[in-house]
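Changelog note: in this version the structure field was regenerated for every chain. One regenerated record is shown below for reference.
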Amino acid sequence: MQLSREALLAAYRQMKIIREFEERLHVEIQTGEIAGFTHLYCGQEAVAVGVCEHLSPADKIVSTHRGHGHCLAKGCDVNDMMKEIWGSREGLCKGKGGSMHIADVTKGMLGANGIVGAGAPIAVGAALASRVDGPGPDGLRVAIAFSGDGACNQGTTFEAMNLAAVTKAPCIFVFENNHYSEHTGVSYAVGTNQDIASRAEAFGMKAWRADGTDFFAVHTAMREVLDYVRAGNGPAAVEFDTERFFGHFEGDPQRYRGPGELDRIRATRDCLTKFRASVTGAGLLADADLDAVDADVMGAIEGAVAAARAADRPTAEDVLADVYIAY
């Protein structure tokens, strides 16, 4: 599918804002101003954007502990997200979610999740609700379960895939295979058959595979997957082969990496570099167009950090707010 100039610029901007959001957090975390664990998404931007560019707010996604990219790709506000990570009461979840538990149900973002594999059952529940509610103006609404190569070994993921297959829930299991489950390589953590998508096929689902460092490969595969699921064929799965540029968490020394591995993947598998080469090489956009987006994004990130630093912090009176609810 040929994307318009406007769509190409929008996709690049989304990927760039995720990249710079994460790169800035990598710096700011060193100051001690941000509490808790943070898991950065740098390197995997093409997956989040290539998937979410097809979705409407009525479609739902459930994320992982590495969720900032999914949130931004689904339309969460960059300023409110930065405030949330800084622990401000003005944040997207009033400072109570932090890095690993950001959610915005108005955008169809049902939340990041600190428990590996825990998002898949939630996505199936959302998909079943969509099926019960019936199609929206744009057709059958779907739910996306993002997970990694580590989550593919979790019982929750297997149970969720089985339930989705049994109920024909319009759920899509998106596996981002970045080759490391925390510090353990996929060649050791996943059995002899390391084709993760084939696990979904064992439940009778149709599965796709694509290069997760190529935005256009992701975008095309996801269009096919969505057409299939929205047509009422039940759940599906897709595995994207991708890379993460930083450690499992901020502070991870990455001693499990091979010599020169990070330099190699940054040089050859950077989705932003590949996108720029593709669109400029084909004459679809000029370097100047992308440079202008870069400058705009850097300004937006700078503004978001300044706003987060200045935002109000929670008070003692906020402790019990939003904890209990009366029905």
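Spot check on this record: DSSP finds twelve helices and seven strands in the chain. The longest helix spans residues 5-28.
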